[in-house]
Amino acid sequence: MHQVERVQDLTEDELLERVVPLLPASAARVLGPGDDAAVVAAPDGRFVVTTDVLVEDRHFRRAWGSGADVGWRAVMQNLADVAAMGARPTAIVTSLVLPGDLEVAWVEDFAHGMAQACRIHAVGAEGGDLSGGPVVMVSVTAHGDLEGRAPVLRDGARPGARICHAGRLGWSAAGLAVLEAGFTSDDHLEAEARDAVGRFLRPRPPVAAGLRAAEAGVEAMMDVSDGLLRDAGRMARASGVVLDLSSQAIAADVAALEALAHACGQDALSWVLTGGEDHGLLAVVEGEVPEGFRQIGTVRAGEPAVTVDGGPPSVLGSGWDHFSGR
Ligand SMILES: Nc1ncnc2c1ncn2[C@@H]1O[C@H](COP(=O)(O)OP(=O)(O)O)[C@@H](O)[C@H]1O
Ligand SMILES: Cc1ncc(C[n+]2csc(CCOP(=O)(O)OP(=O)(O)O)c2C)c(N)n1
Ligand SMILES: [Mg+2]
Ligand SMILES: [Mg+2]
Ligand SMILES: [Mg+2]
After folding, report:
1. How many CA atoms lie within 13 A of 121 on its CB side?
2. Interatomic CA distance for residues 38 and 40, integer angstroms
3. What residue ranges in 1-109 does DSSP mark as E strands?
4. 83-117 pLDDT, tens digit each
5. Distance 124 CA to ligand 2 centre (A)
6. Distance of CA 40 to the CA centre of its chain
7. Residues 15, 18, 23, 25: is their CA dihedral positive or negative?
8. Topology classification of domain 162-308
């Protein structure tokens, strides 16, 4: 019998390969779908635009934190994509889907969290939309100003260049594990666990470092939302190169999470390599390591892949995918 193809049979990337070719472009398209943000032409320059959604029980649980935490994360997750293009975040609009029995105080708190995150980066919240629905869903669309610079894409990694990263790796995944283990942000937690939960609830993408890197002329950049291996795999594919990561360069991150991982019965190395949502920035640069970044590997020629210490090509897919375990 003919099998009906379902979303869960595909990876996100496979689904996008089916949908994106159906979508129209206009004369204003400078860069369409496929990178951290689109680039749109305007009479007086070019800007980037990007959107990311948060869904209750998929991206956050209301019991794990406050409305303000969700508002903060909805903003920061989008600012990370703007900064990853080398653009300065300027303005957002927000769509909210809310169940009717949700406390108004939660929504006010959410707005406070959004405002805090926006103020840090001098971003305006300029509008949005409201609807009712079965769970809380938040969609933020963020705009960014390229300030005359060329956008920094995922396809500029060339053999011999340095792979760099700014921000944390693995801490958000650690925080998620702590919360899944049953702690809440109110419990008395060890300092590390508390730090990890804080990083999960309130990611702090290195926006300023991303802008400096863009000014310095990095060749490629992206934000790490789905895990280092999966996202680096996307850069490797876009650039047609091998990204060779160094286990020594990430050893300190792994060591810092070891005790917590042990307590959670999980593996610190997989948090660092495959945990998402830290929203750090992965960049490739032919010159000096940009301020705020550290080198974590080197680009080399070959069939697109990510390796650690030149070992067997890692599964490009390891990391977060909304639909498929692959
Ligand atoms: N529904 C969609 N329609 C068109 N393009 C999409 C859709 N969903 C995602 N994309 C595009 O696919 C690329 C990958 O999306 P995603 O993995 O969410 O990016 P990011 O990790 O930067 O948030 C992006 O360029 C995004 O604009
Ligand atoms: C309740 C809950 N379970 C699991 C996760 C882990 N998680 C959810 S989505 C995601 C990946 C990042 O989110 P995504 O929507 O893919 O952002 P994008 O890549 O589009 O920026 C991760 C690691 C979570 N944040 N909350
Ligand atoms: Mg996205
Ligand atoms: Mg994103
Ligand atoms: Mg994702």
Report:
1. 33
2. 6
3. 29-31, 38-42, 45-55, 88-98
4. 999 999 999 999 999 999 999 999 999 999 999 99
5. 25
6. 21
7. positive
8. Phosphoribosyl-aminoimidazole Synthetase; Chain A, domain 2 (3.90.650)
pLDDT value of residue 316? 46
81 is in an annotated binding site: yes
Q: Distance from CA of residue 325 to its chain's centroid?
A: 19
Instruction: Measure the CA–CA gap between 258 and 264, rounded to whole angstroms.
Output: 10
Q: Is 15 helix (H, G, I), strand (E, B) or coil?
A: helix
The kind and range of the H/E element at 295 are: strand 294-300
DSSP letter (8 states) at residue 162: E
Q: Tell me how far apart the alpha carbons of residues 126 and 124 are, in angstroms, rounded to a whole number.
A: 6
Domain ranges of the chain: 7-145, 162-308
Domain 7-145 identical in fold to domain 162-308: no
| For the chain, the helix, strand and coil percentages under 3-state DSSP, each to the nearest 5 | 35, 25, 40
Whole-number Å distance between alpha carbons of 318 and 326: 7
Average pLDDT, the chain: 94
- Torsions phi, psi for 189 (to 5 deg): -120, 150
Would you call 3 helix, strand, or coil by DSSP?
Answer: coil
Task: Assess: ipTM above 0.90.
Answer: yes
Computed on alpha carbons and rounded to an integer, the radius of gyration of the chain in Å comes to 19
C-alpha pair distances (Å), 102 with each of 58, 97, 113, 141, 179: 18, 11, 17, 23, 22
Are residues 297 and 233 in contact, defined by beta-carbon separation less than 8 angstroms? no
| Ligand 1 atom 16, closest CA | 36
Is 277 in a helix, a strand, or coil? coil
Q: What's the predicted TM-score (pTM) here?
A: 0.94
Q: Is the CB of 7 under 6 A from ligand 1?
A: no
Cα-to-centroid distance, 186 and ligand 1 (Å): 35
Residue 270 known to bind ligand: no
Q: Please tell us whether the domain made up of 7-145 is placed in CATH 3.30.1330.10.
A: yes
- Show contacts of 104-107: CB within 8 Å, 24+ apart: 105/67, 106/62, 106/67, 107/67
